[in-house]
Write the structure tokens for this entry.
Amino acid sequence: MRVTQRVKKILSNYDSENPGVKANLARMLMAGKLGGTGRMIILPVDQGIEHGPARSFAVNPDGYDPDYHHQLAIDAGLNAYAAPLGQLEVSTQSFFGQIPTIVKLNHSNSLSRLKEDADQAIFGSVEDCLRLGASAIGFTIYPGSDQGLEQMEEIAELIREAKAVGLPTVLWSYPRGGNLSKDGETAMDVVAYGAHLAAQLGAHVIKVKLPTDHLEQAEAKKEFQNARIPIGSQGERVAEVVRSCFNGRRIVVFSGGAAKGTDAVLDDVRAIHEGGGNGSIIGRNCFRRPREEALELLDTMIRIFQGKA
Amino acid sequence: MRVTQRVKKILSNYDSENPGVKANLARMLMAGKLGGTGRMIILPVDQGIEHGPARSFAVNPDGYDPDYHHQLAIDAGLNAYAAPLGQLEVSTQSFFGQIPTIVKLNHSNSLSRLKEDADQAIFGSVEDCLRLGASAIGFTIYPGSDQGLEQMEEIAELIREAKAVGLPTVLWSYPRGGNLSKDGETAMDVVAYGAHLAAQLGAHVIKVKLPTDHLEQAEAKKEFQNARIPIGSQGERVAEVVRSCFNGRRIVVFSGGAAKGTDAVLDDVRAIHEGGGNGSIIGRNCFRRPREEALELLDTMIRIFQGKA
Amino acid sequence: MRVTQRVKKILSNYDSENPGVKANLARMLMAGKLGGTGRMIILPVDQGIEHGPARSFAVNPDGYDPDYHHQLAIDAGLNAYAAPLGQLEVSTQSFFGQIPTIVKLNHSNSLSRLKEDADQAIFGSVEDCLRLGASAIGFTIYPGSDQGLEQMEEIAELIREAKAVGLPTVLWSYPRGGNLSKDGETAMDVVAYGAHLAAQLGAHVIKVKLPTDHLEQAEAKKEFQNARIPIGSQGERVAEVVRSCFNGRRIVVFSGGAAKGTDAVLDDVRAIHEGGGNGSIIGRNCFRRPREEALELLDTMIRIFQGKA
Amino acid sequence: MRVTQRVKKILSNYDSENPGVKANLARMLMAGKLGGTGRMIILPVDQGIEHGPARSFAVNPDGYDPDYHHQLAIDAGLNAYAAPLGQLEVSTQSFFGQIPTIVKLNHSNSLSRLKEDADQAIFGSVEDCLRLGASAIGFTIYPGSDQGLEQMEEIAELIREAKAVGLPTVLWSYPRGGNLSKDGETAMDVVAYGAHLAAQLGAHVIKVKLPTDHLEQAEAKKEFQNARIPIGSQGERVAEVVRSCFNGRRIVVFSGGAAKGTDAVLDDVRAIHEGGGNGSIIGRNCFRRPREEALELLDTMIRIFQGKA
Amino acid sequence: MRVTQRVKKILSNYDSENPGVKANLARMLMAGKLGGTGRMIILPVDQGIEHGPARSFAVNPDGYDPDYHHQLAIDAGLNAYAAPLGQLEVSTQSFFGQIPTIVKLNHSNSLSRLKEDADQAIFGSVEDCLRLGASAIGFTIYPGSDQGLEQMEEIAELIREAKAVGLPTVLWSYPRGGNLSKDGETAMDVVAYGAHLAAQLGAHVIKVKLPTDHLEQAEAKKEFQNARIPIGSQGERVAEVVRSCFNGRRIVVFSGGAAKGTDAVLDDVRAIHEGGGNGSIIGRNCFRRPREEALELLDTMIRIFQGKA
């Protein structure tokens, strides 16, 4: 594997990290069909925990088997596969070494009734990641939640522990809870703020939702308007999020959100591509489709990020 | 670098500390254009976390890049640059060793809705400071907040840990929360009280806001009046804060607060100088100005502290 | 990267290991031009420590620079590059993630006068391997030496520590010292015995020298003769070593020994191939040749292991 | 302090280290009159331990006081001052922060009768270095000694511990003991070998003696002759040592050895300069001269390294 | 207790230590009849371990009872009482707080047959000292012994541990063993060298034997003669030892050695006083005399150190 100039440039933003952390970032950036382009598609499958098994897999029952998703990520030529501890313990025994994996370490679930103090439970550890041969740890924070500060302290400690053993961190930053309105969760200012918090915590890859053009916080709204920051198009909003992550010096990937039509998914991907985002994390829109459709969708996404579609 | 008599005198107040702590204090007091005068200007940039990226940087978008601030602090000839973990991990790789750095270890954020129990999340650790080659740890406490006692216990432990490895502590003491009125947060008696708490916790450099002539607590008000403590001018109020920090035997620096006009900023600096404060911590009033204006402002501030303006 | 059936079969012999260890073995077995064949060529460069810099590199002075060897291993399409700590700290910063690396953790040197109690000094640790993003630890034991038992205890502990964090062990087993004659060091029975000891210690990849047809130990000789074990050809002797490693259920690679002519090197490789060895570790015979000659030699070796030459 | 391009280039060879280690290297490379040139002069004073107080200081009795040497290093504008624990505990209280310090952690002494197993006792620890505000740890190994392997293991562990807290290592590598002849201790091949071992152990700054043109080891002699490595002049021999330290990618400084005449000292310095060595460590030839003579000598040395004399 | 200017001056040499260490030094320097003068008399009683009970106490059988010695030290108005762990566990229960105590942590004994590798066994720990309310730890090293380097490593670690909890170290430095001749053990150069080693190890109070005018080491002899260091009188030799301890910046006390006549003891004391030594440690010459005689002797010694006799 020859690391490309594009990937070397991205990695130069992580020069204060040890070579192990950079090697694992390189491993993810160089894997799959987008390897070397600086773009990434990651398949995350933790919706079994988040929403329950039937709500996640009944529509495409192959998904009840952990191997299905791991195989799909490999076959589609993605950059990495992210999953919870238990699920990876099953599938890793079949697929180790074939695609970089990310152990998602904490999870919310829909049986809990948390609202304003949205929280997650920590299922795994850094040593689990090493034991399973993973290339990164994954974690979710809910900025704005009454549990948000505690979550930040949890991940701050995990990041330190992980980087000491050469593992980078992929941080899901999803503002919610507290005083945030439902619209506020995906507001332009709020998503950018959440992404910035992830960068400040020392995350190496930041995952956020695609923002809308809503502006939630009055003071922020004023600044957006005074500075005439363009946020009319999805691509412009992506660019603003990227800028909020140390002016593009951290890898930022976007999630597709709820299951939706193929055209909507691809429009999002085009916006991420145009706005300079590093890629997509796409879960439900993959595994709730039949395998062939999912592969086809992923192939089109890859071609968009390659500038071919 | 020859340590001046003035700095030696200041450091003699820290004789119970080990030589490592004193060496790092000396490093900050001897750096930059004010090196050796016993006065300091520190550039702190953590408003991305505190207020969000757009609200902080949209007005002067160079500030989205962590290198911008670090470079500005060097070019202006300041004594130290203070920033959060993630931001320093990016810029330190370009600027290590060129200006003393302070890793701010905890942060509040404006997505959280904490009010009476104002709190912060701890992002970094003492080992992060050593790993990044920093000269001090930075921390914020909110005396008065329902979380205040817990914060004091957190910093008490961090101070112990840091000084054992030769790192001094810069402590932001900002009374808020609990029963404190909005005016009370910057009341003369409250600011002096907060500064004293920081000194008692073992902080080596104490950062507070400039106090108003409001007196919040009835019992304190009585004493101020009985003793006829002069608090009419800003300089007098600065002197009272300095006196509250072990009669001037701890280094005290003042923050400028919200962005404002150049004249207002310079008036504050003159009052700090006259009142015997050790210097200024100035963030928003720097990085929200264009670079050339910021450099000019900082240069005037330096000349005031040098007694030349 | 699709793991081949051949590699899966090899890895099935390591089923009691955790997925991290197997992922790193897979990484080495799937890398380079021999990736997937179950054969490996590893470039080890620690002769600077073993024999001194001039004796190792003067003949081809590019070798004084650590990057030269790391680059050579990549350009030749090898499976892994093995080197000491200091050397890898230099080259890893240029090449991380481009080829699996093995940190050789202990070393002898020619300034020390140890003979019967041949020993090595431990330069690195398992945490160094993680920090540098390595895929395995490397270690040397001298069975027969008066220090041999202590070395076995050292590596036994390191193997345990390494596998807990997902790192397999490549073990150099070189009988010498004690009562062993010079000829005995490469005797058929002794090499097979040393290989077996490595397997029993839990090594994942075993590296030995190519044995001669000499039989050192009287009791062993008797058994070889009674059982009419064929050891006349190099291929037969390779097969006997492989059989001694749990009947071929551990990966065994052979070193070429002292620098020699191209034909002699290739004869060795053919014997390893025929005897069912997993591959070659070739150091001096690479880096003491000019780069183009070394690349050509390695290419021929690869084609032999591919069954094409 | 603006780090020069020359120093940045040197530091780029240490990119696998954390920013703290690089900041302390920068601190030493940027201090004093040679700051920024990539050249260094370090004053080490541990001869009180090595040879006893009278043998070291009687000739210039100011040297009995630890402050004398620390002050001399500052006044001469050197890059760093290296001394044992007890001595630094006295002088650091007067001079902290005025010049980078190196705590020499182990020492031999002339009351001990060790010969073939030359060894040292460890006086200080990494935490002592932090407590005293030092910029590096210092250590001596005796490659070739029967205690050499154990010493290498000691320093390997200390290097790991030190770099985790941002401290680089200055390693004195002095082959002696075992089978080495007296002439062999400074033989060209042996000095280069010792320097290479220090680099492989992960030392950041390597200190060796100036080699003679003697070649001690038969196999090395053959390689020097075959490759026609020029070693006739001192400058050529310095260049060969530098090449043996990863082709000049580690900082190498040379000691002047026994007290001698000014011309001899300056000839050595010119040879170091011409051969591309990074500088001098000069102890006895400083403190055994009267202060004014020592300052004059150091000033001439500095000018040679500046290319001005 | 008002600390005198004289004691403050002595303590200023320990400014790199924490206030706890300095407070315990002050406690010893301010205790008893010599309190405040900068001079000390310490009663050490560990001869029961060193030479056996009968050889120590039969001549004055009150000495079999630990309380006898502790009481004597108090009644005589001494600065401190030093004893082994077990002995102090008995007497401390009667006398705690009445005189500073020093727990002697290691001991040789006359049943062991060690010669060239003279060594001691460690009986107590730093936590024992705290538990018993002691003011310092005591330890013996034998520079020159084949065990000397190991002993230095032991005490280096204990000093670190002790000072972290505010306990200074009294270090007995008695060269012996190895190649040292019997006369060499008290030779001028050797005693000064041993004292210097103790200072370098970080000892706070250094205890040595009174030196003779013999010069053991040829190289040292040359320096003594070249520099015309006066060593003809005992006072001059004391001064040379004091100078060897960082030019008088460490507290040095002298032992009287074997039991002898009163005049001889007092001559020694006068020499220590004249030479600028900080005091005496006197054991056998006290407790082998009847109590009244011992008290009288100690009183005369005190008066000598007060300049009254």
About this structure: Chain B has a mean pLDDT of 94. The CA atoms of residues 157 and 201 of chain B lie 10 Å apart. DSSP finds 14 helices and ten strands in chain B.
